[in-house]
């Protein structure tokens, strides 16, 4: 479903990704691990379509479609979702309004009927309950005054409500205590199935104890240097990146 | 530079000379106003109060007085639903057939009961000289008059630009209450030069919600004088969306102990629109409070102006004054000019002012778009969030709904 081939990209004239090849088939969850500065966040932003990055070579295909020519909203309509490492605060925009606007924009673009306020609230409350989050989360302005953990949980709430077919979780575990981590992992696991895939970007093995990936890739200096099964994450935990031949550049 | 301004000023004086015998009210007041206007003329940018607003575009137009019998049916049918008794003026004159005002509500017409003071501001002097009609609203002591709507419609037919100078008088007795929704719209090229004189008795409360959606070729100047009595409260909110050039000039005087003035405004301008919000708050008595928040959303080459002046007299101890101008520039060619002026003669006061200018945050836009919200809608959401802080303060649900719809229409017209 997601194919990245020979991707080279950077920002401000500096090359960060130096030839990424990665295929995430339908129904699989892959993890990307790697030291700071290896290009993990650059990859997630390029997948979501953030401006400012220069792609010099390679391609990204989602269901065979060229992702790089699509706007961020077109990528969302196609089913891509980025859980941000640093969720953005939107003062004056209520969470419920934001989520309903996003959900209905996606539904409209897909030719589905929009949800009215009652239908939306039903769906939102069910998602909140599953994630053990308080209802007042909907009334607050998007991420404004949220703790680090609340922001991350709000990303997972958005994912639960928007139900993407492919999620990129960019260090969603950072800033979470163990209980919140379990809730977030359950939120992702609840979506797992033959129609859902994910790329879980993380520093730590910890999250992968709860979201067990089908494949683990090690990113270093802009390239995938090792790929393996879940056991690779445990090997990294024991011997560090150097132990798998992935020193920081 | 001011030859055109002087010439246009002469035209208005000539009009006054022709028509003065038929205008209602004390001729002496009008003549005194004419002398002031003759001395000052249409204001040039050399006047400090007009430094950022250039009337040369207005002076380039040759205005005539409005002919009677304009057919405003289309404008009337497009009026928002104010859910309140409505007084309609067409081209400066009350249109009883289009109004639904019950008799005996303390509402009259300036033409029948002219009552005006001499005002020095040059365009208020012009209005004093030429005013024919307007609303006269009186609320007796202790009466809650609920909500009234006042709509001014201008219609320049057959390509002849017109100038109209309605004169409104709003008087609230001690402890009286009123919410007044004021609306301005029109069609064609015209100049709507209105003056409102407001007097609030002790403890009276006037909520004045103004929506200006004049035609794109129009000029709009509103000069409001509010005399606020002890413990009285004047809550004014102006939303400016229309006109090629608009100026709202409010003079609020807190003449009694503990008076309150809230002079808030928002404007959304695009193309080459020019919108000027000018306020002068005179704290003449102790314990008064004034608050002003002005929000400007400026697209294309639009230009916004906020001039806020707070004067605190020696006697006005414990005054609490605050003003804030916030501008969102949606284009690199848009411009905002802010000028706060504080003139304080008392020594125990709290007065502050501030200004912010910014563009839409690209990170916020990307966040919304990454969730599937199209760029235009994402911009709308962020601009609405910016404006909401000003609009949320409007407690009157009906008025808020009217403003919300006007803002939504503004976005629909945005390409």
What is the average per-residue confidence, as pLDDT of chain B, rounded to a whole number? 94
CA distance, first residue to last residue of chain B: 36 Å
Shape of chain A: globular
Write down the CATH topology of chain A.
Answer: Rossmann fold
**CATH homologous superfamily descriptor of chain A:** P-loop containing nucleotide triphosphate hydrolases
Subunit arrangement of the protein: heterodimer
**DSSP, total strands of chain A:** 12
**Which structural category do the helix and sheet elements of chain A fall into?**
alpha/beta
User: What is the mean predicted local confidence, pLDDT of chain A?
Assistant: 92
How many E-type strands of chain B? 20
The profile of the biggest β sheet of chain B is:
10 strands, mixed
Q: Which characteristics define this entry?
A:
heterodimer; A: 249 residues; alpha/beta; Rossmann fold; six-stranded mixed sheet; four-stranded antiparallel sheet; 12 strands; 37% helix; 29% strand; B: 415 residues; ten-stranded mixed sheet; 8 helices; globular
Task: Describe the structure concisely.
By secondary structure, chain A is α/β, with parallel strands linked by helices. Helices cover about 35% and strands about 30% of the residues of chain A. In chain A, the strands form 3 sheets. In chain A, strands 6-9-10-3-11-12 form a 6-stranded mixed sheet, with helices on both faces.
